[in-house]
User: Which sequence fits this backbone?
């Protein structure tokens, strides 16, 4: 086809003259960013989920109140999944004459399928990791029950009808329950020995679990087949349902990375709009000439658009290659941090990014290119005809919709894409409006002194709509960078803050009121900071405003596993909890009574509002209180939190125990032993390993976020470059004319400087304002974060705007000022 | 004389201006025979370029018709008119209108390539040789002088062997010596190729190279003299 051949021939020259390069680089970065982020996050996600699966001891578990049916096992076998079983139930452990209640856990030979156990030969010995449970005939016991039964390795214990040899102290299990409501100390045995104990009879209370591990496709296959077979007492859980803390961290990380990748796509769109506009404006005369020569519209379109499409496709293809390279490097950089081998990336992210790049190019360049139809042949005689018209953002609506659909396919998060697209459209409109107002205001500024000043300011105000468009593009580039920086800082900051170095690693429950001093004494003795003790009362929620709520699911997502749907831990306090601030209503004073404070999400679930009357039942006694306020709780903080905190009068005379979480340094391990020995009714739960795992995951995600951010920075840079270059021809012509008319290079430099600084200043100012608003909205809607905007953002926005715009602008116009003006004018004609 | 290659009947053009309707051309009638060299002269604003745009089918009239080689141009749609131009007409412009992204050779070959002529480059080379630019065929427009650029434009205009050549102020951007050389070359090529030439100019010297002059004033033909 002639058009295409001509197009390719012209492309060589267009490339050399730089017209197409901006578009090329914008697409290259966007596609590379998208490929890298999607391929890399896909891999990291898999690795992270593998690691997170350690907390379940499997990828997926099926829990049941009765023995697991064979049908499930058969499905797992059909799909080639790795599987094993565990059975948990409470029972009496006998050692000589001593009896203790133990939480028995019988595990198969392959347990744990993910993660590891930590055991030691004796209570004082160092713990080592192992990936297998006890052999038949052996029993491993938790440190507390080991101490309580005063055991040594090799001693015998009895469980039901079977005797076991005690061989190890069990310090850590991957699937250690975070549920501390009714936890007895652990005794682990082999599943093959379970029948011989004769402890489980028909109707015995036990929890049966099928543990499963395999590839994501095997697991989703199992889900599909197993879900129709589930009884009401059975449920399938993966890491997300099982551990809401992990869910929050992973979901936010997912979202941030997807956001960063999408932002580079949106930025590329903006760059393509600017670049294609300049490209076409330089080809308007060529269109008219071709028309004179008898070329059909279709041929002209092929020649002009073909160059963009060919360059764009090349950029997209190279972007995919670069993206894969980059994700490989990212993987290498993070390899020491990630567990095991990273799985290889699939080809889908690459294909998706390539398609996205192509669609992006067509959607954002096409509205401009379609203006070719409006270029009349008569333009050869009358230069003023067929100039590009200003286009509103609506022209890009279809393109944005298509890109949005593809983004949804890529990042699988429709809400996020909707927010990004709406956010960009609204931000662009805001930026454009603000830019117009600023230009109007500038027009009113009286210009008296300094020729360069006048020239620069006038250039900005005279090219009103160009300047507004340019400000919008620069503003979007800057805004997105500021926005991402703001969210990134807050996201990372809050992650780190939610798990400080001394995050609580022990939970203590069941402390009686008269044991407080004894407990403090032990802490003092081991030089560990005294823990904060919270009074707790068990009870049930009965009614709200007299209406029965016993059927309401009070658990929601954050309740952890296995909690009874109606039995809750209540607390009472006269002062507002430090880590759980009031977000609505106010905390009560000493003189007020009969009040309760609700956790906000819990309040939403049970549909309770401030002023409502809540009735609870504690040990058969019904108590009533009015909702005084709502609190926010950071569930991932590992601190003791309550759904309901009452004013102290409500709980007077109720049976109280105390609960606490505290940080126990590694050096104070003996504190644990002493508490267990001296306060035998107290239950201690070691969540240290879980905290460490979550911390590691957060650290890794943080690093990934930092690396991915670099791509977005690149995309932002290209947008600025494209925006400045969009009006470069006008600027160059203007400068050359001014020089021909006798303006000195210094004056022109000054004029350019004024214009660029002015542009940067306005773009930075507007971008900071819009970024501040959008960041707050995005943070609260998508990341559930409350952002405290640092006022320095304004300063940074303006500094960044001025520096970047001036640098790019100067580098583009500098060489022009060195050339003889006549030559410049002729080149442009 | 042979049959008219261009027949203009009752041509007028009216546009809406800021001060109301503005008639740019009033009832223009004339014809141009094959092989004829005609100059359209007049002061700035006389309507020369508007007329040229209509004659070449680049613009549409308010009333009247233009027949090119017997075909009524304004009965065709835009793409058909473009094809008619490609087959019959060439242009030389005041501002050369070379494509900056193509070399001299590629610029000259362009109209043939649009028509799908396989020998486009060879023919283009030959034309560039005719206009004395054999040594500069791989230069880009920005690397050529004004006179050289206009010679490339002439080579491009004649490469398609057009029936009719429109020239719009072909010497307007050149100094008088170069302009004269270009107009001599244009006339020579026109004679060699036997094409019809219609030149719009305000320069009497250029008009002298033509066999007939049509003088325009305020959108009307004032006189037509041989």
Assistant:
């Amino acid at each position: 086809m002639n058009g295409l051949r001509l197009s390719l021939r012209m492309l060589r020259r267009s490339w050399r003259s730089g017209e197409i390069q901006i578009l090329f680089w914008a697409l290259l970065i966007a596609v590379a960013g998208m490929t890298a982020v999607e391929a890399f996050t896909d891999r990291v996600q898999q690795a992270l989920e593998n690691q997170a699966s350690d907390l379940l001891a499997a990828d997926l578990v099926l829990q049941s109140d009765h023995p697991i049916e064979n049908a499930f096992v058969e499905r797992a076998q059909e799909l080639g999944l790795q599987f094993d079983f565990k059975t948990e139930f409470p029972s009496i452990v006998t050692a000589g004459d001593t009896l203790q209640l133990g939480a028995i856990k019988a595990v198969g030979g392959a347990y744990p399928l993910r993660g590891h156990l930590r055991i030691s030969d004796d209570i004082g010995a160092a713990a080592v990791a192992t990936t297998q449970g006890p052999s038949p005939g052996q029993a491993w016991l938790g440190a507390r029950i080991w101490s309580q039964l005063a055991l040594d390795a090799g001693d015998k214990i009895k469980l039901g009808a079977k005797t076991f040899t005690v061989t190890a102290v069990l310090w850590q299990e991957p699937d250690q329950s975070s549920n501390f409501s009714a936890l007895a100390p652990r005794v682990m045995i082999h599943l093959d020995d379970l029948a011989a104990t004769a402890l489980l009879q028909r109707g015995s209370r036990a929890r049966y679990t099928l543990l499963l591990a395999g590839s994501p496709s095997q697991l989703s296959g199992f889900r599909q087949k197993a879900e129709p077979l589930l009884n009401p007492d059975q449920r399938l859980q993966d890491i997300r349902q099982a551990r809401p803390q992990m869910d929050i961290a992973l979901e936010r990380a997912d979202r941030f990375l997807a956001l960063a990748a999408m932002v580079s796509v949106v930025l590329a769109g903006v760059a393509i709009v600017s670049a294609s506009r300049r490209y076409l404006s330089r080809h308007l005369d060529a269109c008219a000439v071709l028309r004179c020569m008898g070329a059909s519209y279709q041929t002209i379109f092929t020649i002009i658009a073909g160059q963009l499409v060919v360059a764009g496709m090349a950029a997209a293809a190279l972007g995919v290659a670069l993206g894969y390279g980059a994700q490989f490097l990212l993987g290498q950089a993070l390899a020491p941090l990630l567990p095991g081998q990273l799985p290889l990336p699939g080809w889908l992210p690459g294909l998706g990014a390539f398609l996205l790049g192509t669609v992006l190019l067509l959607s954002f360049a096409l509205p401009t290119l379609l203006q070719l139809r409006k270029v009349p042949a008569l333009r050869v005689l009358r230069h003023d005809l067929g100039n590009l018209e200003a286009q509103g953002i609506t022209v890009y609506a279809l393109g944005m919709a298509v890109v949005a659909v593809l983004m949804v396919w890529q990042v699988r998060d429709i809400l996020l894409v909707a927010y990004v697209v709406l956010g960009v459209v609204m931000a662009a409109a805001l930026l454009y409006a603000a830019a117009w107002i600023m230009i109007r205001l500038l027009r009113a500024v009286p210009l008296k002194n300094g020729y360069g000043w006048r020239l620069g300011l006038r250039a900005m105000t005279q090219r009103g709509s160009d300047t507004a468009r340019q400000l919008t593009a620069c503003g979007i580039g800057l805004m997105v960078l500021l926005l991402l920086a703001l969210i990134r800082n807050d996201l990372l900051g809050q992650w780190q803050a939610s798990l400080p170095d001394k995050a609580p690693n022990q939970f203590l429950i069941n402390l009686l009121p008269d044991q407080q001093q004894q407990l403090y004494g032990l802490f003092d003795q081991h030089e560990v900071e005294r823990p904060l003790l919270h009074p707790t009362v068990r009870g049930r929620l009965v009614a709200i405003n007299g209406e029965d709520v016993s059927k309401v699911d009070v658990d929601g997502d954050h309740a952890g596993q296995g909690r009874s749907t109606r039995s809750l831990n209540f607390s009472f306090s006269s002062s507002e909890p430090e880590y759980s601030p009031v977000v609505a209503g106010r905390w009560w004073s000493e003189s007020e009574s009969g009040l309760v404070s609700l956790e906000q999400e819990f309040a939403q679930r049970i549909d309770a509002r401030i002023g409502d009357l809540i009735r609870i039942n504690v040990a058969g006694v019904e108590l009533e209180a009015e909702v005084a306020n709502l609190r926010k709780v950071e569930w991932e903080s590992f601190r003791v939190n309550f759904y309901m905190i009452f004013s102290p009068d409500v709980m007077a005379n109720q049976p109280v125990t105390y609960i606490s979480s505290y940080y126990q340094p590694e050096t104070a391990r003996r504190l644990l032993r002493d508490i267990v020995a001296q306060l035998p009714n107290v239950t201690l739960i070691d969540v240290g390993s879980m905290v460490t795992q979550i911390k590691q995951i957060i650290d890794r995600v943080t690093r990934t976020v930092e690396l991915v951010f670099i791509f977005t920075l690149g995309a932002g840079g290209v947008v600025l470059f494209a925006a400045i270059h969009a009006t470069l021809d006008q600027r160059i012509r203007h400068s050359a004319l001014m020089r021909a008319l006798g303006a000195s290079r210094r004056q022109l430099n000054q004029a350019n400087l004024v214009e660029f600084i002015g542009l940067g200043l306005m773009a930075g100012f507007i971008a900071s304002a819009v970024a501040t608003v959008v960041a707050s909205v995005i943070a609260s809607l998508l990341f559930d974060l409350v952002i405290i905007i640092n006022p320095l953002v304004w300063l940074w926005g303006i500094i960044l705007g001025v520096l970047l715009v001036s640098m790019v602008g100067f580098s583009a116009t500098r060489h022009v000022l060195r050339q003889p003006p006549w030559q410049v004018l002729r080149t442009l004609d | 004389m042979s049959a008219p290659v261009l027949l203009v009947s009752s041509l007028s053009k009216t546009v809406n201006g800021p001060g109301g309707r503005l008639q740019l051309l009033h009832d223009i009638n004339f014809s141009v025979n094959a092989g004829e060299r005609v100059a359209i002269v007049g002061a700035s604003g006389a309507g020369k370029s508007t007329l040229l745009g209509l004659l070449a089918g680049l613009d549409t009239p308010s009333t009247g018709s233009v027949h090119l080689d017997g075909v009524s141009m304004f009965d065709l749609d835009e793409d058909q008119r473009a094809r008619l131009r490609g087959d019959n007409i060439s242009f030389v412009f005041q501002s050369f209108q070379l494509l900056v992204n193509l070399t001299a050779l590629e610029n000259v070959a362009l109209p043939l390539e649009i028509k799908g002529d396989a020998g486009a480059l060879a023919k283009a080379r030959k034309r560039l040789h005719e206009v004395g630019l054999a040594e500069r065929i791989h230069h880009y427009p920005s690397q050529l002088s004004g006179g050289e650029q206009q010679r490339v434009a002439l080579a491009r205009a004649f490469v398609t062997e057009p029936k009719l050549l429109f020239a719009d102020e072909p010497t307007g951007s050149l100094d008088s010596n170069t302009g004269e050389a270009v107009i001599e070359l244009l006339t020579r090529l026109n004679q060699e190729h036997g094409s019809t030439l219609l030149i719009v100019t305000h320069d009497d010297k250029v008009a002298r190279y033509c066999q007939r002059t049509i003088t325009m004033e305020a959108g009307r033909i004032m006189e037509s003299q041989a």
